[in-house]
Amino acid sequence: MFGTVNNYLSGVLHSAQDCDGESLGTHLSLRDVHVQNHNLYIAQPEKLVDRFLKPPLDEVVSAHMKVLYHLAQEPPGYMEAYTQQAAACGAVVRLLQQLKDENWCLPLMYRVCLDLRYLAQACEKHCRGFTPGHVLEKAADCMMACFRVCAADGRASEEDTKRLGMMNLVNQLFKIYFRINKLHLCKPLIRAIDNCVFKDSFPLPEQITYKYFVGRRAMFDSNYQAAVQDLSYAFSNCPDRFASNKRLILIYLVPVKMLLGYLPSKSLLQRYDLLLFHDLALALKAGNVNRFDEIVRDQELVLIRSGIYLLVEKLKFIVYRNLFKKVFAIRQTHQLDMGDFLSALQFVGLTDVSLDETHCIVANLIYEGKIKGYISHAHNKLVVSKQNPFPSMSS
After folding, report:
1. Whole-number Å distance between alpha carbons of 325 and 320
2. In this protein, which residues make up the domain named PCI (predicted)?
3. CB 393 within 8 A of CB 261
């Protein structure tokens, strides 16, 4: 047993002496093969570890071995494992502070923070007795301690600055904040990245993930132009071999672009198994409100789970707009009887709609800028502008 443990600790020591952050991170990752070694499951490994390593690295390794011990119990002690992983994260903060002008240990920080998030998610799933999201929020607090050290590192050269670790941590924090629905906490992180002189020097995979989350946040803030810009960057730069990731980006990019008047091609949607949006686009283009409602109703659970149900509901205004534009094209007049809009709604299957409801729909379209005009209640007519009464959605 002790021979195996000694070999493991020797490997950790050599990685630290060689300033090999990747190797050190692997030795302390819950995804590495060493976690299957039962000899490393020790409840109190401090004496063994202290023979090889100095503070604060010894604390990181001791906490890691305790995590392995608690996860090996039956049933697994997720909360105890999380507590030890949080202790490891705290020790990594002290290690970062100790290595004032070096950043070789950033890969270690990435692995420890990643495993902290995974264990927090396991606690949320398997443990009881606390408010949902509580453990994940505490994990975010631990990661923020790492982030503050990295963000404050202004003394190091460009090659050795810890600020190069900021985006990786921000992406981890985004995943937590989106999961616990605290998107307002993303704002200071976005500002920190925007103000970072190295924002174009971060690895491309990190930039893709960052743009994906920033685009989603812009979408929730109804800043659709910015959302399209960020999500398009993420999609175009994501390698084709990561088809599932590209599909995930499209789930948000497609409805946002539809809101701006850009309809997706069937071939693109077919390639990523998203023909739901093709059906929606056909109904939208035809102004078929009833068909649009049927699709949303049938796919309600999918849309809710994806977090785009309300976004897709906003597309309904464009369906109304396209239907009423057909009425305008048929009548060829700038004074349109409100009864014609009611008839159009009934024609596409909304048989229970009233004239008052039709007035409300038109009023909302005017307010949203999708129709340029006003309602003359005295004459029961919509008077539309003679110049571009139905503005382009892309404008």
Report:
1. 8
2. 208-389
3. yes
Is residue 202 helix, strand or coil? coil
Structure tokens at 389: 């009464």
DSSP state letter for 74: S
Q: Are strands 373-376 and 335-337 parallel, antiparallel or unpaired?
A: unpaired
Tell me: the pLDDT tens digits for 23-79? 999 999 999 999 999 999 999 999 999 999 999 999 999 999 999 999 999 999 999
Average pLDDT, the chain: 95
Q: Name the strands in the sheet holding 335-337, side by side, starting at the edge strand that comes first in the sequence.
A: 335-337, 381-384, 373-376
Tell me the β-bridge partners of 337. 381
Dihedral over Cα of 175, 85, 38, 16: its sign: positive
Helix (H, G, I), strand (E, B) or coil at 18: coil
Q: Residues 95, 9: one domain?
A: yes
62, 154: one domain: yes
Given a cut of 90, is residue 189 above it in pLDDT?
A: yes
Structure token pair of residue 382: 């919509």
Looking at residue 3, what is its pLDDT?
Answer: 63
pLDDT at residue 276 is higher than 60: yes
Structure tokens at 178: 């989106």
CA angle in degrees (0–180, nearest 5) for 201-204-210: 95
Classify the C-alpha dihedral 216-220-225-226 as positive or negative. Answer: negative
Q: How many distinct structural domains can be found in the chain?
A: 3
Measured between alpha carbons, how far is 333 from 176 in angstroms, rounded to an integer? 54
Phi, psi of 288 (to 5 degrees): -90, 90
Q: Which of 156, 180, 204 is the last residue in one of the domains? A: 180
Query: 10 Cβ partners below 8 Å, 6+ apart?
Result: 52
Q: For 127-153, how does the pLDDT look when each residue is reduced to its tens digit (9 = 90+)?
A: 988 899 999 999 999 999 999 999 999
Q: Are residues 85 and 149 in the same domain?
A: yes
Q: Are the C-beta atoms of residues 31 and 37 closer than 8 Å to each other?
A: no
Which one, of 236, 364, 267, lies nearest residue 281 by Cα?
A: 267
Domain region containing 333: 318-384
Distance CA 334, CA 64 (A): 73
For tokens 């819950």, name the residue.
Answer: 30
